[in-house]
Amino acid sequence: MKKYKKDYEMVFKRQANGKVKEEVEYIGNYYISQLSIKELRKRKIYYLALSLCSIIILTIIGILDTPGSRIFYVALPYSCLFLPSVFSLIGTIRFLFVGEKIEFIDYDKTRNRVRKSTIGIIMISLLIVIGDVFFILSKQPIEKHQVELLFLTGVFLILVLNILFFKIQKQEIFKIEEPVQ
Does the N-terminal peptide bond of residue 77 adopt cis geometry, omega within 30 degrees of 0? Predict the structure, then answer.
């Protein structure tokens, strides 16, 4: 991948039989965990729990048949919410399997991917909340919107969970270690 090309270098190594073999060697920065193994494992579980909760709530509220789901300014952001949610889950699952010392490619595909996805989820959830509140307030009477209020509560819960998730992500887990040349 061209994005990570600067972190690798082609090296020629002589084998025991005298032949020269071309290998790829990592020359980029390493990211070392500042947490103990137990704390890092705990943080990974938090990541997985919050990411899974968001996906589960998103799926459950999608099953609800609400009048707002037929309105463009509610339905479009809701459908756009799936992509960052899935990317967040993918990054979180990959984060479960990284060690205490990781290369930039792993850092980028775990921590950075989850952070960017969480920001996307927060922004899109906020758009859904604003759109759904506008829809509820523009339609009368409000007593007929119990299912719509349930949908709004679910989206608001996703918003709150991801704000909490983002606050947890802001706590720095890794520090950068320069490679020894």
Answer: no
Q: CA 115, CA 88: separation in Å to the nearest integer?
A: 8
- 24: CB partners within 8 A, 6+ apart: 8, 9, 10, 11
Tell me if 130 sits within 8 A of 73, measured CB to CB: no
22: part of which helix (H) or strand (E)?
strand 20-26
Residue-wise pLDDT for 84-123, tens only, equals 999 999 999 999 999 888 888 899 999 999 999 999 999 9
How far, in Å, CA of 53 to CA of 41, rounded? Answer: 18
CB 173 within 8 A of CB 31: no
Strand-pair category, 30-33 with 8-14: unpaired
Distance between CA atoms of residues 103 and 92, nearest Å:
16
Using one digit for the tens of pLDDT, what is the confidence trace for 150-180?
Answer: 999 999 999 999 999 999 998 878 888 877 6
* Four-point Cα dihedral 87, 93, 95, 96, nearest 10: 170
* CB 97, CB 66: distance < 8 Å: no
